[in-house]
Amino acid sequence: MFSVIKRNPVSVVLALLLHGLILFFLIFGMDWSNPGKPATPKANVVQAHTVDAKQLNQTKEKESAAEREKQRQREQEQKRKQAEKKKRQQQLEQKRVAKEKAEKKRQEAEVKRQAQLKKEQQVKEAKRKAETKRKAEMEAKRKAEIERKQKAEREAKRKAEAKRKAAAEAKRKAEAAARAERERALQEQMAAEQNSREIDRYVAVIKQQVERSWLKPGQGSEELSGVVQVRLIPGGDVVPGGVSIIRSSGNAAFDRSVESAVYKAAPLPVPSGLLFESFRTLKLNFKPSK
Amino acid sequence: MSTDLTITHLILNASPVVQFVIVLLMFASVSSWSMIFDRMRILKRAGRAADEFEGRFWSGGDLAELYRQIERETDDESGMASIFRAGFREFARLRTKGHKDPMAMVQGAQRSMRVSLNREVDRLENHLTTLATIGSTSPYVGLFGTVWGIMNSFTALGNVKQATLALVAPGIAEALIATAIGLFAAIPAVVAYNRYSNDVERLNNRYDDFVEEFATILQRQAVT
Question: Does a structural domain hold residue A109?
Fold first, then answer.
């Protein structure tokens, strides 16, 4: 456990997270499925004693009549007060509205005047700017024209010179390249010829070795022929499963015999070094000689 | 007391022995899951490394060149690559010392490959026994907690005249939690143990095959 913490703390953190998650769901899942019991309402105890019904009614009626009278008076008083208050408020409101209107008009006039002033100033400023700009542009144009002419002259001169030089250089280079190319081609041809001679020699030896371990199937196979592809590794070992028939002879027994002959003949005599590259995948043509 | 049966409440009210058992099992579960994640990563990586190395080995390149490449990548010296390195190094050393007997050379290389293979397999199997232990013992530990809890609640039942179900139920419930946690810890551990020991076995077989194949190639080189 502790060596795991030291070597791979991520997995410990993952494990802790997993447990935390499971615990969380367990605890809260339990709480939801088990709501608390509804509380039982407490019973109210009534304390009662007997009363004479008639007497009770009379006193009740009296009380209620007096109550009603009082109520009526209170309502009238209140209505009066409210009407007065309303009137006062209306007067105040009218005054306030008139004052506000006057103020607003004054402010609007002020704003208009200022806007007018600003506009005039802007127009003046714009005119001045346009004038200076026009002048500066004319000046710049004149200068640019002169500059352009001078530059073009210089450029043309330089270009002509460069062209002359480049042409000479190119001619020289082309000649040299052609010479080199001719030499290289000659050398290559010689090397290739030698290589192919060498390869042919090796192929012949390989073929011989394979044929030596080839058990030819019986009669009737003299007319058949096929092509087999062999994949080799340095040292001449055949890669497992690296033998495949490219062009079948049409006779399955014949193909099988060729395949097993290749496996039996391994390791094949192959060259080492650079020359081996052309033996990595080798194609062999098969035909029973005599 | 008898109305609240949530898990937290049960655990907090359990007897000390049961609580101790529960804590022990939680620890076992966390450590087993850590090992599961750890092994998962290591085995996956080993399988990938073996695939990659087999591809390189059978691609037909020069063996000495391959050895030099692997020597250069010292950071990744696990699995087949290290077996190959051990074998080839021994073979080259014996050859430069001028041993004439090809059989002895191949046997020396094979022996050093075996040592390297054992070390690799040991590295892969590390911690698997702990997983197996957790898987097989934690149900028993949980059961012990449960038995102890039930014992206590029955002892308490013996002291009263009127025995009711409400008197014993919470005690039994809290005791059973121990078994539940024990099973919770054990099941993943057992599954992971089976799975991973199978994986290790398969990797071991692959390494074995590779040692044999490589030995035959070396033998052929030694004879010529």
Answer: no
Percent of chain A with pLDDT over 70: 89
A1·B35 Cβ contact <8 A: yes
ipTM score assigned to the predicted complex: 0.70
Name the residue facing B30 among A16, A34, A232 (closest C-beta): A16
pLDDT for B53-111, tens place per residue? 888 888 877 888 888 888 777 655 578 888 888 888 888 888 888 777 888 888 888 99
Q: What is the CATH number of the domain that holds A245?
A: 3.30.1150.10
Q: How far is CA A30 from the centre of its chain?
A: 43
Q: Which residue from B3, B32, B58 is facing A37, i.e. has the nearest CB?
A: B3
Q: Tell me whether B220 touches chain A (CB under 8 Å).
A: yes
Which residue ranges of chain A lie beneath pLDDT 50?
33-41, 290
Which of B7, B22, B38, B210 would you mutate first to test chain A, the one with the most A CBs within 10 A?
B38
Out of B29, B31, B62, whose CB is closest to A234? Answer: B62
Contact A15 B37 (CB under 8 A): yes
DSSP state of B6: -
C-alpha distances in Å from residue B120, one per residue of A68, B84, B112: 106, 12, 13
Residue A228: CB partners within 8 Å, gap ≥ 6?
A243, A244, A245, A246, A258, A259, A262, A283, A284, A286
Answer yes or no: is A244 within a domain.
Answer: yes
Q: What is the value of pTM for the model shown?
A: 0.48
Residues B35, A18: C-beta atoms closer than 8 Å: no
For chain A, the domain total comes to 1
Q: Are B113 and B83 in contact (CB under 8 A)?
A: yes
- Which tokens sit at A25? 């769901």
Which residues share a beta bridge with A71? none
